[in-house]
Sequence to fold (203 residues):
Amino acid sequence: MIATSPSPVLANSPAAARDIRDIKPPITIPSGWEWVGWVLAALAIIALAVFVWRWWRKRRSQIPIEPVVPAHIRAKQKLAEALALISQPKQFCILVSDTIRSYLEERFDFRAPERTTEEFLHELRGTDLLLPEQKESLGNFLESCDLVKFARYEPGEPELRGLHASAVQLVAETEPVETGTEGENRQSGKEPQPATEIANQRT
Fold:
């Protein structure tokens, strides 16, 4: 029997071309230890987060906390600074009167920043925050300052120093009394005592 070789026509046919395929790449077989890398990466991230958190807490604890300056101390400082403007009556009176109003508002929690002097005094007179003579002195003080601020009145230095002394005296008379009761009130968050009660304590 005579062996026959494949026909060239059949070897080059489309069916034969489809039967020839590329060699597949090698298949990676999991070793089972991949989870170790993921665990180590997670632990590294957690350690970094803990380090950053501790560093932030340490830095925050080292930031000095500025003590709150009491209202009467700040008022006295501003009144002392106002003396540098005594040669400029209008600027001097603006600073002194604004200092007193801001002090009284903060000291007695009496908010009246946008009110006129007349409205401010009218509401203040209806309270027991100041003694009668203090209210009268404050009214004269603010009205004198308004004359300089709005009526272009130019007082001499002695009169300006008198206004300054009146403002300093008012702050000194209404500043908190350093007693055991006052300290307890501050710790417990109670409101400052009215001027009538403070006056009774002093007498």
Q: What stands out?
A: The CA atoms of residues 2 and 45 lie 77 Å apart. DSSP finds ten helices and no strands in the chain. The chain has a mean pLDDT of 77. The first helix runs from residue 8 to 11.
